[in-house]
Amino acid sequence: MASTTETKQKKMLILKSADNDEFEIEESVGVQSETIKNLVEDGFTFVPLPNVYTKALIKIIDYLKKHANKTDSNDEEIKTFDKDFVNTTFDDLFELVSAANYLHISCLMNMLCQTIADRIKDKSPEAVRKIFHINCDYTPEEEAKIRKANAQAFEGQFDESLD
Amino acid sequence: MERIDVISKLPVPILDHILSFLAIKDAARTSVLSKAWNNAWTSLSCLDFGYGFYHVIRGVVDQILEKRLNQKISIKRFKVNVPNYVNLDSWIKILVACNIKELYLEVDTTYAYKKLPEAIFAVKALNVLCLCGFWIELPSDGIKFSSLRELHLVESVFDELLIQALCISCSDLEVLSLRGFYGPISLQVARTLPKLRTVDLVACPLKFQMVDIAAPNMKDLYVSSSSGFLNVIKIISCKTLQHLNLHGVAVTDQWLENLLPHLPNLEIFYLSSCSLLKTMKISSNRLKYLKVVSCGNLTEVDLDTPNLLGFSSDVRYGKDIVDPLPTFHLKASRVLEASLNLIPETLDTNWYSKLTRSLSNFIHSKTIKLCCDDHKVLVIPKELRESLLPPLYDTNILQVKLHDRSNYSVVDIIDSMLWISPQLDTLSFGHTVDLKTLKFTYRDAADDEDEKPCCASLPWKCWRHELKKVTLQDFTIMELLELRNYFLTNTDKLETIEDPPGWFLRTSLQYLHT
């Protein structure tokens, strides 16, 4: 069965980023995104992505291509690829997570959110704020109130390191 | 300059998704980060109370559930581990009202199993149910689940009627996993579950006798029994099965022979502790991975599997181990990777000859992995090498893993491995985490001018006369010195020995030449 589809011309899609760059990819690669899949099922071959910028789209296409070629034997290779993929700046991670959310790529979404969550795990709120550059928009009174409402969560020792 | 707070500007569903990977205490602490995070926390849909009974005792679970109920927030996932005495009824009531999708309940079973509240069976929208430590009875009102996709029952007591009723009502079931259960003596799944993909029956109890599954789309089946008496497995109508793993099951030659033609899609087949099996004949174009371990009565293995990529097995030897080496016929992929676990009780001449014969079964495999406790298992005595033929002269990559961390001589191992496999490109060995690697480069044919081959009687190139370059990685300085001497003494065309990235040898070789 695989051989008959291979001999046919591969179906291609064009993805257009928010900054108007166009990328041609195989349909089978693109449909790992639920959003793209729905459009393809409605007959689209040109897919504008107004919420995804070129920089993130290039990385995501890389990811989709790698994962489209998943077999039993390249498990390790994909793991290494994934590890490198998330090893980037937080600004890039947040850009990617928004894009993955918009494109509905659940395995990528899980991997990115897990990566971010791992940096929050066991940390003190002060450390998390510094790691992610979070601006605290509470007044000291408001903050004290929130702490009190979730008092149990603040009992014990937490990791203050920023790594 | 103040950096822009990008993360707090992410939409709540994304923050919710991030928090869903955290245990409740970590998630609750994010409430204090900023207002956006507090919003995400108060509406968090995945509540994982983790291990430890702390939250339960302090009433934290009740408090958080009440809040969700009052604000009409739906709960996607609820995960808790509780002591046996906790009353679950009020929680389940709230969870039902909050439209729970994935429920994970675990109770401590030190003293007794806990009776499962019947109210759970009324949660229509449930997708995933995972119960551990419960006594589960068929509810008087029947089972209302209509969208259950995954059912995991662990360390629990129930009977066949319950499973039958579940199989009838949960027509969307994809995963059925029963681990360490008590009660049923059989599992029968008729054709009522078209979506069933995975069945795990792990640590089946002594009385459990029969598995009979007719799931037209099943992909994975794992059955493990500690008794070894589980002898009826009927799966011939599961034609889509790709992955079959049987442990401690009384499979017979006849059963295997009858089964395999019915499973044309089987790609991964693992058999362990199946002591009734005597002959194993497999003919398949699809099979990619095969593992046969602790099947001590096997006398014949015949594999016509041209696409086999991985084969693993064990080689045992000892005074009480009668098993002769099975006769072995193998037709596999060119890139087959064979892994052998070597388990001799004593090391004598017979062991080394058994080892050599076992290895020679994989003469055409490019990659071999060997695993053993002690390096002596692999160091074939020099006097024996005279009377035996190197078993793996066609192998390019050899990896040896040693469990024992005690000292060993790298030269002894390398010398023996190069006898076993005289044309290696890569040899790596060591403990599971820190492997030391040697890479070999040989002379080209073009380098051969009019010199006559050194060991013309042998069908393989002899590394002693052909080796041009050795690269050593991750060795200690003492080992590097020993290996340098070894290779300088035992080769005659060697041009380079290097040890990147340290380049210790380059320095020392320079000294040697000056």
UniProtKB/TrEMBL annotation, chain A:
Keywords: Ubl conjugation pathway. InterPro entries: SKP1 (IPR016897), SKP1-like (IPR001232), SKP1-like_dim_sf (IPR036296), SKP1/BTB/POZ_sf (IPR011333), Skp1_comp_dimer (IPR016072), Skp1_comp_POZ (IPR016073). Pathway: Protein modification; protein ubiquitination. Residues 11-69 form the SKP1 component POZ domain. The keyword Transport does not apply. Gene3D superfamilies: Potassium Channel Kv1.1, Chain A. Residues 108-153 form the SKP1 component dimerisation domain. It holds the Pfam family Skp1_POZ. Part of a SCF (SKP1-cullin-F-box) protein ligase complex. Involved in ubiquitination and subsequent proteasomal degradation of target proteins. Together with CUL1, RBX1 and a F-box protein, it forms a SCF E3 ubiquitin ligase complex. The functional specificity of this complex depends on the type of F-box protein. In the SCF complex, it serves as an adapter that links the F-box protein to CUL1. Belongs to the SKP1 family. This is SKP1-like protein. It comes from Datura stramonium.
From TrEMBL, chain B:
Residues 88-241 form the F-box/LRR-repeat protein 15/At3g58940/PEG3-like LRR domain. Coiled coil: none annotated. InterPro entries: At1g61320/At1g61330-like, F-box-like_dom_sf, F-box_AtFBL13-like, F-box_dom, LRR_dom_sf, LRR_FXL15/At3g58940/PEG3-like. Residues 7-46 form the F-box domain. It holds the Pfam family LRR_At5g56370. This is F-box domain-containing protein.
